[in-house]
Design a protein that fits this description.
257 residues; Spore Coat Polysaccharide Biosynthesis Protein SpsA, Chain A; 10 strands; 43% helix
Length: 257
């Protein structure tokens, strides 16, 4: 099997179907057979809504249960259940654009040292002004990534919810890092993977995400929080923020009120 898509989901009944449809469309555009060359795995991470039932009702989607609530535990459970040589970690509110999978395949096919590939988020529901602020933040983060990865050699950069890893590299890590549950988990994974090969972040691999966390907690607050967790995970090997707020779309009956 070429690639596995792992989608962790906690109470994502509102957004999960569109995410899975976008993944399936990308697989079909590449002419891959689901179940043979590609697979889709949803990790139901202790959901209390209809996330698991909705995922099970979608053809060719496999559901894995992970009762320990937390993004790291969910992603690792999905990896263990997966079979692909490449494992794509996609968040439940993320849509893959056309050409995403083709770029992933080309990158790994032409670079034997590449162990992980990631790109930025484009937020489909935020204003152009906020998008420009986020773009500036990404470019600052990218500059830091270049220094850390190629000069200091202390880590790298992954965008959680939009990254792909080689199965053999992920397996060599041995297990998930239980010190992280949410914030900083992608930076910690990038740091550990960078010891095994090349971790590449590129603006040529964007994905469309919901801006619900940025809208719910504020762009400045989230930018500062992610920055602090990036440096803590890179240099202190622990998260700065150990608790997080779950921000989900309202259920159908709540949205109608």
């Amino acid at each position: 099997m070429l690639i596995s898509f792992v989608v962790p989901a906690y109470n994502e009944e509102a957004l999960l179907p569109a995410t899975l449809a976008a993944i399936r469309a990308e697989i079909e555009r590449e002419g891959l057979a689901i179940g043979e060359a590609a697979e889709i795995i949803v990790v139901d991470n202790a959901s209390t809504d209809q996330t698991g039932a909705i995922a099970r009702a979608i053809p060719d989607v496999r559901v894995v249960e992970e009762p320990r609530k937390g993004l790291v535990a969910a992603r690792w459970a999905g990896f263990v259940a997966s079979r692909g040589a490449l494992v794509a970690h996609i968040d439940a509110d993320t849509h893959l654009p056309p050409g995403w999978l083709a770029r992933v395949r080309a990158a790994f096919a032409t670079d034997a040292r590449l162990v992980a590939l990631s790109g930025p988020y484009l937020y489909r529901d935020l204003s152009p002004g906020v998008q420009r602020v986020i773009g500036f933040y990404y470019r600052l983060a990218y500059a830091v990534y270049l220094v850390n990865h190629f000069v200091l050699r202390v880590g790298a950069m992954l965008q959680g919810g939009n990254f792909v890893v080689r199965r053999e590299a992920m397996a060599r890590l041995g297990a998930a890092n239980d010190r992280f549950s949410f914030y900083g988990e992608d930076t910690d994974l990038a740091r550990r993977l960078s010891r095994l090969g090349r971790v590449k972040f590129t603006f040529a691999l964007p994905a469309y995400s919901s801006g619900r966390r940025l809208a719910g907690e504020g762009v400045v607050t989230i930018g500062l929080r992610y920055s602090l967790n990036f440096f803590w995970a890179t240099f202190l090997k622990k998260p700065f923020t150990e608790e997080w707020r779950d921000i989900r779309e309202p259920r159908g009956e709540e949205a109608a009120l």
